[in-house]
Design brief:
The protein is built from three helices and twelve strands; from the N terminus they run αββββββββββαββα. It is of the alpha+beta class. Strands 1, 2, 4, 6, 7 and 8 form a six-stranded antiparallel sheet that branches. Strands 3, 5, 9, 10, 11 and 12 form a six-stranded antiparallel sheet that branches. Helix 1 packs antiparallel against helix 3.
Length: about 220
């Protein structure tokens, strides 16, 4: 009887742990903050003189991710698309000009906090920004190319595997052309986040251990 009680207790404990893991509503929930550098960005060439400047900005608090909670599992294996930065073009109102930008290395750092564990991980991605801004003194036009190619990074944060991806078709929205002496509509940088459970799962091993004890007890009883 004592052996049966011990085995039963082990199985119940293992089942409870597994059920508790499955009941975690916060799995894949995260908060994030980003830092985008450099800013400001001046043109690499200008004719006859510099007439514009590009500014970049991150999202949220990079040092201590907080704010709204996102779910890396909201779209299943497709994860969640998140905005990680903005860029704007400002016309300095100095008349006609043509400004050429880049190639300039830009860096986006993403600090991601797993809500369930409160652990934080940092991802760093680099891209090459290039484009052109021109004005006839009244009307300004701008064109910028996507700085990013496909990239991905994975790390365990609080026991959950988070993968941050750059999907080129979603990663970049070009900034709008500014009016003379003004700032255009902001462009955007966007990344994708997914979450997974590390394998092998330790809770599954506990469950198998409980089943193993049950088998041993039965064999001893038959013997």
């Amino acid at each position: 009887m004592l052996k049966r009680a011990v085995v039963l207790a082990a199985v119940i404990a293992a089942s409870s742990l597994v059920a508790g893991q499955q009941a975690h509503a916060a799995f894949g929930d995260f908060q994030y903050g980003t830092d985008v550098t450099p800013s400001p960005i001046n043109p690499t060439a200008s004719s006859p003189a510099q007439g514009s400047v590009v500014n970049q900005a991150g999202v949220g608090s990079f040092a201590t991710p907080a704010g709204s909670v996102s779910s890396a599992t909201v779209n299943g294996p497709l994860g969640a698309d998140i905005g990680v930065g903005t860029l704007t073009v400002t016309d300095l109102g100095l008349g006609a000009y043509t400004d050429t930008y880049g190639p300039t290395v830009i860096t986006i750092d993403v600090a991601l906090r797993d809500v369930d564990s409160n652990a934080v991980g940092t991802f760093t991605f680099a891209g090459i920004l290039s484009g052109q801004v021109s004005s006839n003194g009244t009307t300004t036009g701008s064109s910028f190319f996507n700085p990013f190619v496909a990239q991905s990074q994975t790390q365990s944060i609080g026991g959950t595997l988070y993968t941050v991806r750059i999907i080129p078709s979603k990663a970049f929205t070009a900034p709008g052309s500014p009016p003379s002496g003004g700032t255009g509509l902001a462009g955007a940088y966007s990344f994708n986040v997914t979450a997974a459970v590390p394998e092998p799962a330790s809770l599954a091993l506990v469950g198998l251990g409980g089943l193993g004890l049950l088998v041993v007890a039965r064999r001893r009883k038959r013997a």
